[in-house]
User: Fold 23S rRNA (Guanosine(2251)-2'-O)-methyltransferase RlmB from Herbiconiux sp. A18JL235.
Amino acid sequence: MAKSGSGRPSRAGAVRKSSKGRTVGSGGQGRQALEGKKPTPKAEDRPYHPAGKAKAARERFVAAGGRGRPGAKSNERGQDAGRAPAPARRVKKADDSEMVTGRNSVVEALRARIPATALYVAFRVEVDERVKESMSIATKRGIPILEVMRPELDRLSGHDAVHQGLALKVPPYEYAHPETLLDEVLRTKQTPLFVALDGITDPRNLGAIIRSTAAFGGHGVIVPQRRSVGVTASAWKTSAGAAAHTPVAMASNLTQTLKAFKAAGVFVVGLAGDGDVSLPGLELADRPIVVVVGSEGKGLSRLVTETCDAVVSIPIASSTESLNAGIAASVTLYEIARQRSFD
Assistant:
């Protein structure tokens, strides 16, 4: 402990007189800290920074007689610019493309000029007229034709797909707008006939409904955006190419879309086993109609049922509880087409 001139210990922090009469204190010792931070040095001037380490490495390399270019810039990993940079890692993007499999489906999709990115043909495939036409159309349109081994084609098509040695890679399906489809039909002076799906999740049902809609003069299929199946490769396959000719529209809200159709003069007819109207007695067959098909388990939702102008049931034998959604839609569309043909 410091002692005062009288020999007694001095108090901590006390100011004392020097031998020359000057006052000694702590003033000025923290002046640099009070002045604030200085400008940040460049990255290459900071020895701990990768750029600084690279600069030091270059200087050592040149000083040792190396052939590197003095002052060459380094990459962001701190490597010398004279060396080949590390290859950039490619980020794999999700591929939303679909594989249309089967000879009928592929040739119909190509005939309809569905945008495709590749045609896969199995090695030593048995060539028939459909294969020849598919390859001919693909060649004219500039679509790459890739010959692959059957195990590879099995992998590309999916474990449950039957490709028959032919598969077409197509981009994601582009859905139409429901009201746009309706406007197009009304503009051509035709009687609208649409099918809407309420809770259908099986793509094979969707494919069958698309096929039936095309067969019986329907103008399009409407699917809701949520809790419903979309146009997948399986739906393409089941439709046997009919999806190339029958447009599918996506509704953000099915109930609101049905109400918009009603406002345009279209009658909404729902299908249910306990419907209050029998299909043969449907009096709205010759009117503009949208047929709503519900799921096999839950049927029509409450809001959709309340929107319907009529709920129709199909007479069936007592031994059968219910019909498949695709079959029910097909029977209904046939009956509507039959009644319209008599008018």
About this structure: DSSP finds eleven helices and 13 strands in the chain. The two ends are 120 Å apart (CA to CA). The chain has a mean pLDDT of 77.
